Amino acid sequence: MKIEEVKSTAKTQRISAHSHIKGLGLDDGGTAIQMAAGLVGQESAREAAGIVVDMIKSKKMAGRACLLAGPPGTGKTAIALAIAQELGNKVPFCPMVGSEVYSSEIKKTEVLMENFRRAIGLRIKETKEVYEGEVTELTPVETENPMGGYGKTVSHVIIGLKTAKGTKQLKLDPSIYESLQKEKVETGDVIYIEANSGAVKRQGRSDTFATEFDLEAEEYVPLPKGDVHKKKEVIQDVTLHDLDVANARPQGGQDILSMMGQLMKPKKTEITDKLRKEINKVVNKYIDQGIAELVPGVLFIDEVHMLDIETFTYLHRALESAIAPIVIFATNRGRCVIRGTEDIISPHGIPLDLLDRLLIIRTLPYSRVEMEQILRLRAQTEGIQIDEAALSMVGEIGTRTTLRYAVQLLTPSALTAKVNGRSVIAKEDIQEVGELFLDAKSSAKILSQHKDKYMK
User: Do 340 and 98 touch, CB atoms closer than 8 A?
Assistant: First the structure.
C-alpha cells in the first residue's frame, strides 16, 4: 500500500508590493517609531498622517484634502495604505488612479462622483424585536390536509425558548417551521427569531451541552441573558454608492422586454444627479432622526497629475459639498503642465487654487540604512533568506538606482541562489542578477551612447 504525502490545505496568498504594511507605526504620543508596522523612516510624513487619522476619527476632517508629494519610490502609496489600516475596516477606503476617469462609456465627472460616494459610509442603527433563547421544545402541530387526501399539514409550531431569566412558549406560523428546518434547528440550540420579519438565525449550540461528545466541531454559545422577548439593536454599514446603485437599478416586470434586459450584459449606467439629491434628502432625514450616522471615509487618488483641468474644477465643487469624504492625493511630479491646458505650468501639475486648499505632506528619499531595513523587511515578507554582505550590496544598488529596482532584484536572486544550490542569497547571486537585468538609468545611458542604432 502506497501512502502519499498529504499537502496542507492552507491557501498561499500572493504577496503584493505593500503586503508588509500593517499601520503607521506611531507610539501613544503620536511620534513615529523608526521602524514599525512595516514602515521605515519618513518620520515627519508618518506623524502628519497620524494627525490626519485622528482628525478623521473625530470627524473633523470631512471635505478637506491632503497631498502626499515626493519623488518616485518614497512610500506615498504605502503611507496612504497605512492610513487605511489605522482607520480599520469599518471606515470606507476607496483607492483610485488619476487615469481611471478616462473611460469610454461614462463621463469623467461621473467616475469621480461614484468614487466620492464609495468613500462615504452610512451606519444605520435599527431596533428589532426578537425572541431569543435556547430551544427547549420544538413540536409541529399537524392537522388534516384541507385539500383532502391522506397527507397532513403543519398548522403551527410550538417552540419553547429558555434564557437565563425565564422561559416562554411561542406558537409560530408554519412558514417559520420551514425556516427552522432550513437552519437545522434542534432542541438545545440557541436561536433568535425576528418578530416582524419571521427570520430565524441559529447562533450555535448552548454551552450546557459542551461536554457531550460531538464529532463535528460545533460552536457553543452561552445562554442568552435577559427576557426571551426583547428589543435588539442591529447595525448595518453601507456606502452612499451602494444606495445609489440599489435605487438606480430598474425593477423589471414579467414582460419579455424586462427579461431581455436582465439577459443582456449590463453596461455601466450613469446615476443621475436628481437621484443622488433624493438619496441625500433621505439620508439627511435619517441622520436628523438619529437612525443613521455618516462615516466619512477616505478617497485616495494616486497619480493626481493625470487629472485634467475640467476634473480639477469639478473637484472644487465636490470637496465643498455637504456630504464629502476626506480626499488624499499623491503625486511624484515637480513643476509641470496641467493636463488639458497647453501652457499653464504649476507645481505637481495641480492648479494653484486647488493647491491652496491642500495640506501638503512631503516624503523624502530614503537613506542607505533605511533602504537596507526596507529590503530586509521585503525579504522576510517574501520568505527569502539573504546574508548581510548581499543585503548591503542590494542597499548600495538601491542608492545608486532606485528602491523599486533593488526590491525587484530579490526574487530573481533567490531563484539564482536556488539554482546554485544555496538557500540563502549571497553577494555573487546579486552580482549575477544585476548584470542580467538593467535599471532605468543604465538603460537610458546605453540609449544615449548608441542612439544612432535605435529608431527615432
Answer: no
Domain count, the chain: 3
133 and 225 share one domain: yes
pTM of the shown model: 0.70
| CB contact at 8 A, 364 and 80 | no
Mean predicted confidence (pLDDT) in 136-145: 79
In-domain check, residue 15: no
Residue 407 resides in a domain: yes
Domain range enclosing 398: 368-451
Q: Is residue 318 part of a domain?
A: yes
Q: And the C-alpha cell for 261? A: 434586459
Length of the chain: 456
Q: Please tell me the distance from the alpha carbon of residue 178 to that of residue 185, in angstroms, as a whole number.
A: 10
**Same domain, yes or no: 130 and 227:** yes
Compute the distance between CA of residue 193 and CA of residue 173 in angstroms, rounded to an integer.
12
Nearest to 137 by CA among 186, 180, 98, 93: 186
Cβ atoms of residues 322 and 59 within 8 Å? no
* Proportion of the chain in helix, strand, coil states, percent, rounded to 5: 40, 25, 35
- What is the model's pLDDT at position 240? 86
Question: Could you tell me what percent of the chain has a pLDDT over 90?
Answer: 2
Which pLDDT score, from 0 to 100, does residue 319 have?
85
* 151/211 same-domain check: yes
